[in-house]
Amino acid sequence: MTITDDIEELAIMRHRFEGFEHEMNANASKVGVVNQLARQLLQVEHPNATDVVQRQNDLNTRYAVFV
């Protein structure tokens, strides 16, 4: 991607960014719900607690890349 002075192209890029930002904000609550569910599973000593922690960490790592 190159930097541009074209006003139309900048407007398109801004629109795309705003859409992406909205999507990321919407997903933040979903990530929060997953983290809460993972904590609940760990509190009740779920038999697959190791997998739960690993998946929770993977999700949070991937999400952190975007925010």
Summarize the structure in words.
- α1 runs antiparallel to α2 (49-66).
- With 67 residues, this protein is an all-alpha fold.
- The protein has helices at 7-43, 49-66.
- The longest helix has 37 residues, at 7-43.
- It has a domain at 35-67.
Unreliable parts = none
What is the succession of H and E elements? HH
Shape by Cα distribution: elongated
Separate helix tally: 2
As a percent range, the share of helical residues equals over 70%
Proportion in β-strands: under 5%
Structural class: mainly alpha
Provide the residue-averaged pLDDT: 89
Give the termini distance in whole angstroms.
Answer: 20 Å
User: Largest sheet at a glance?
Assistant: none
- Which radius of gyration do the C-alpha atoms yield? 18 Å
Number of strands: 0
Task: Outline the secondary-structure elements.
Layout: H1 7-43, H2 49-66
Helix pairs in contact: 1-2
Pfam families: Spectrin
Provide the descriptors you would attach to this structure in a database record:
67 residues, mainly alpha, 2 helices, 82% helix
Short structural description:
The chain has helices spanning 7-43, 49-66. The protein is mainly α. The longest helix has 37 residues, at 7-43.
